[in-house]
Design brief:
The chain is built from 6 helices and 4 strands. By secondary structure, the protein is an alpha/beta fold.
Length: 145
């Protein structure tokens, strides 16, 4: 993994539908991108293309989902997102539900045709080093508020 500024991790937001925006960020040296499905008109198709582009270029793709919806969280993780940022998590119950949505369960709640990435070991909100650093940084900032 590349070192960002001062040996840290460097990321940015993707709010444009064009996959070239992800490509430009990769060539600019960013370690991760956050594909924003909350405050943009991006859809799951665009997110999937952005995720594949980022992965192909060695950039960790995170996705800010629009809400706590199980379907969107699972679909972006199925597409290969390194993690999700979930807005408006205000209670312990909501946090637990979000974590459950990120886990691959082989029981009746999972479909029969799970993609290989999730089937190969499950999913957690931040599977890659840069995703974990970003999530840890965001969590500590939220606790200070």
């Amino acid at each position: 993994m590349r070192d960002g500024i001062n040996g840290g991790t460097l990321g940015t937001w993707i709010k444009l539908a064009s996959p070239e925006s992800v490509e430009i960020m990769a060539y600019a040296g960013f370690d991760f991108v956050v594909i924003d499905l909350e405050h943009t008109t991006l859809d799951l198709g665009a997110a999937s293309t952005h995720i594949a582009t980022a992965r192909a270029l060695g950039v960790d793709p995170l996705v800010r989902v629009p809400d706590h919806g199980l379907s969107v969280i699972q679909r972006v993780l199925d597409a290969g997102a390194a993690g999700v940022l979930v807005p408006h998590v205000d209670t312990v119950e909501q946090a637990r539900a979000v974590v459950r949505a990120t886990r691959f369960r082989r029981a009746a709640t999972a479909g029969q045709a799970a993609p290989a990435e999730r089937a190969a070991g499950g999913c957690c909100p931040a599977r890659t080093t840069s995703a974990r650093r970003f999530c840890a940084s965001s969590s500590s900032k939220a606790r200070r508020r």
